[in-house]
Every structure is written in C-alpha cells, then in structure tokens.
C-alpha cells in the first residue's frame, strides 16, 4: 500500500512539473510575440485635398496600436509630431495650410508597452504642394515606364527603365511641371536585379521574377515586373525545323556543352575582349580569355573540340559566342552557330531560338 501511495505522489509530481513546463513555454511564446518590434507603415503618400489642405495616407502596420504623423519644421530643422492616429486610421488631413507651399511628412507606428508608446522608426519622407486649379507646378499623380510589365530581360544585362511622372490631372492648366522629377528606385529582389538612382537595371546571374519600383516625391509609386531569363539556355528552338544534320548534333549531343559555354561568356562579358579558342594537333587548347573561373568551361570546350571534328574553333567577344564548323581545310565552306547576347542577328540565315542563329554557306 505504501508503495502505491509513493507511486501516486510521484505521478502527481511529474504531472505538475509537466504542466508548469507547458505554461512556461506558452508564456515564453506570448512574450516573444509581444516583444516583436513594430515596423513603420508602408506606402506612405501625401495628396492635395484642397488649396489649403493635404491628406497623408499609409498602410496598416502589423502589431501597431496607432500611428504618429510628423511634419518638417524649418525653424526647428527637424520633423515634429503633429498628430497621433488611432489603430484603425489610415489617413489624416493637415488643414489650414498656406497655398503654394511645399510640406514634408513622415509617419511612424507605435505599440503600447506598459502604457507607453514604443515607436518604430519613421517612414521615408514624402512631400506635396498646395495649389489652386490653375497651378503650373503640381504634384505627381502616376508613373509610367519605358518597358512593358512582364518584359523579359537576359541575365547579366542592363535595362533603362525611363520612368516618367504624370502630374495632377485635376488642374486646368496645360503643360504643367512636376515639383521634382526625381524618382527613388528599388528592386524587390536584388539577387535577381538591382537598380541605381537613375533607373538603370542590372540583372544578375540568377533567373527569376522581380519588381522594379519607382517612388515620386509625394509617395506615388509605379511598379513593373521583369522576368530575368538565361537566353543562352533556351528550353526549345521554335524557329528551327531540324533540317541540318550537324546543327542537330550540336543541339542534341553537345547541347549542355554549348549552353554552358554560352552562359559562361554571358556572365563574364567584357568590352574589348575577343578571341578564338582552338585545339592544335597535339590536343592543346589555346585562346582562353583571362577570365575568372575559366576552369568552369574547360571540360565543355574540350568535349566539343575533341569529339566533334567539324568544330574547329569557338570565337567569343563582348556580345557573341560562335561555334564554327568548317568543311574543307581552306575554310571556304562552313556553318556557324551563333549566340548573340544583344540579339544582333541581322546578318544571319536562319534562327534557332531568340538570341540563337545559324549561318549556312554550303550543303551539309
């Protein structure tokens, strides 16, 4: 009987310890959730409501209990608090302003912690001008781009976005000007594409989709999607009917070797650098450029030159890779498979795929 009682107490003790552990774990999780920092609101913008008022807008910030609006004070030379907004509030109107004047704002989120407001960092600054219906200088309304949404761009290439701001359409004056044409550019994924302060997009080696965003002075945004792909590795050859024997061999048996070499020179393109990679009678390969990680394609180059005798050289430049096949020792008859980074294929006979072509000068 004593043993049974001792066993019951032991079970009871273990149960209590387990319950305490569960409670402690839950409290720890709640504490972690509560301690999650509050972030500043996104998509802050300011719009003219009337000639003497401006409306500041923002998106909801997760875990925020409210928002604080700041306005730049020239005398104090800093942003000062002008309004505290409630949790569900997404805009605020600043009234009794002077017409024809530019005002600057920032917005922060806050969370109540033990009765005190724990504030986030302030958002980016937005500015807008007050004016009448006949104003000549106006705020931004929309942003257009020089490229179409969803356009394809090759890896390791550049693209100018050419962002154009369209002004407030509510004014009656023609040929209005924007307060400032400056745009703030950003990329949703800089591992895919980066954009500089002038809207020049540089794609990286990684394929994928990202969004390039331009923000005007008052927070108005324009966004365009770009699809970054590797043109050196086409999934198919939509423009080729398979009519040339040795072209077919290159695009099947040596497909990966060809793609690897074309990709390498796409990534390592340099202006003013060109040459021919060849193999001599003793099996030595010459003509490699002084590029980093050249060993990546040495096996591919040797595979093609050693096992496909018609290919006598692989030429490269800052925007092309060419695989040359010769049919006589004088080189009078040949076929060239051409990958052009910039798609300058106007001098070729026949396309294989976008950025790929072949030139045929004799029967095969």
**Topology, number of strands:** 26
Quick one: overall form? elongated
Number of helices: 4
Supply the helix-strand structural class. Answer: alpha+beta
**Percent of residues in β-strands:** 35-45%
Helix share, percent:
10-25%
Q: Quick one: biggest sheet?
A: 7 strands, antiparallel
List segments where confidence is low: pLDDT < 50 over at least 5 consecutive residues: none
Provide a descriptive summary of the structure in words.
Helices cover 18% and strands 37% of the residues. A seven-stranded antiparallel β-sheet has the order 21-20-22-23-24-26-25, with helices on one face. Strands 3, 4, 6, 7 and 8 form a five-stranded antiparallel β-sheet that branches. The chain has a four-stranded mixed β-sheet with strand order 11-19-18-15, with no helix packed on it. The chain has 364 residues and is α+β, with helices and mostly antiparallel strands.
List the helices and strands and how they pair.
Elements lengths: L1 H33 L10 E6 L2 E5 L8 E8 L4 E9 L4 E4 L7 E12 L2 E4 L6 E4 L7 E2 L1 E5 L6 E4 L3 E3 L3 E4 L9 E2 L5 E4 L5 E3 L4 E4 L4 E8 L5 E9 L15 H8 L2 H13 L7 E5 L5 E2 L8 H13 L3 E6 L3 E7 L7 E7 L10 E3 L2 E5 L4
Helix pairs in contact: 3-4
List its traits.
alpha+beta, single chain, 364 residues
Give a concise summary.
Helix content is 18%, strand content 37%. The chain contains 4 helices and 26 strands. The protein has helices spanning 2-34, 245-252, 255-267, 295-307; strands spanning 45-50, 53-57, 66-73, 78-86, 91-94, 102-113, 116-119, 126-129, 137-138, 140-144, 151-154, 158-160, 164-167, 177-178, 184-187, 193-195, 200-203, 208-215, 221-229, 275-279, 285-286, 311-316, 320-326, 334-340, 351-353, 356-360.
């Amino acid at each position: 009987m004593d043993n049974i009682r001792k066993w019951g107490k032991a079970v009871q003790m273990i149960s209590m310890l387990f319950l305490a552990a569960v409670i402690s774990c839950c409290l720890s999780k709640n504490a972690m959730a509560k301690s999650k920092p509050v972030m500043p609101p996104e998509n802050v913008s300011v719009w003219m409501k009337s000639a003497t008022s401006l409306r500041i807008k923002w998106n909801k910030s997760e875990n925020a209990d409210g928002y604080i609006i700041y306005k730049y004070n020239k005398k104090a030379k800093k942003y000062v608090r002008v309004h505290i907004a409630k949790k569900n509030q997404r805009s605020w109107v600043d009234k009794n302003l002077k017409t024809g004047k530019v005002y600057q704002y920032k917005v922060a989120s806050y969370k109540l912690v033990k009765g005190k407001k724990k504030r986030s960092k302030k958002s980016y600054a937005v500015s807008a001008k007050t004016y009448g219906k006949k104003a000549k200088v106006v705020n931004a309304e929309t942003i257009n781009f020089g490229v179409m949404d969803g356009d394809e761009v090759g890896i390791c290439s550049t693209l100018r976005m050419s962002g154009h701001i369209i002004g407030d359409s509510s004014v009656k004056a023609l040929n209005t000007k924007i307060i400032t044409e400056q745009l703030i550019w950003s990329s949703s994924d800089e591992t895919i594409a980066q954009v500089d302060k002038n809207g020049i997009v540089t794609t990286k080696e990684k394929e994928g989709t990202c969004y390039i965003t331009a923000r005007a002075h008052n927070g108005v945004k324009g966004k365009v999607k770009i699809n970054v792909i590797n043109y050196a590795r086409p999934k198919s050859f939509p423009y080729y009917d398979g009519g040339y024997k040795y072209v077919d061999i290159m695009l099947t048996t040596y497909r990966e070797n060809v793609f690897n070499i074309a990709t390498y020179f796409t990534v390592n393109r340099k202006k003013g650098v060109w040459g021919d990679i060849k193999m001599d009678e003793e099996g030595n390969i010459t003509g490699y450029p002084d590029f980093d990680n050249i060993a990546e394609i040495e096996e591919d180059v040797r595979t093609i030159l050693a096992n496909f005798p018609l290919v006598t050289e692989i030429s490269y430049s800052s925007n092309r890779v060419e695989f040359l096949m010769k049919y006589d020792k004088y080189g009078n008859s040949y076929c060239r498979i051409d990958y052009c980074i910039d798609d300058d294929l106007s001098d070729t006979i026949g396309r294989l795929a976008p950025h790929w072509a072949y030139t045929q000068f004799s029967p095969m």
